[in-house]
Amino acid sequence: MDSVYIYLQLRSDTKKDYPNLFDITAASHILFDESIQDGIREIKEEVGIEVSFIDLTPLGVINYCVMLEDFIDKELANVFLYKYNKSFDDFIFQKEEVAGIVKVKFADFEELWLGERDSVRIKGVKLSNDGSKVFLNEYVGRERFVPNHVSFYQTVIQKMKENL
Description:
Layout: E1 5-11, E2 22-24, H1 41-47, E3 57-68, E4 71-81, E5 98-105, H2 106-113, E6 120-127, E7 133-140, H3 150-163
Helix pairs in contact: 2-3
């Protein structure tokens, strides 16, 4: 799995929740009258990639809750896998939501969330102040990710491994 990567978004620094942290590539909160399939719109809106629902591999529903000092984030996450093999140049960011996209070796990402390493090497692009894309190549630890419980990340990783 050394050649398998997972893509992550860098949340905009203007986001109310979890600004400037790494998160799953695209996420949507669906409205009461929408279907799970309607949530696919967020992929195009946030990162500019056109994806068909039939190209997604369902990984299941993960129930999670993050409790911070002044904030409770409780959700049922319908998680999907999408196999992507294009360039960082293909991403177009919704700057209010996404500040960049990075990739990390899947095996390294797994080791990070199993506690077997302290950091992972990310490579990707982020928006500069003038709106141009600048290259990222650095090491980051768990503190740079949305503070989901470790079991959330481990569950997503396990479900991905079952479908790779």
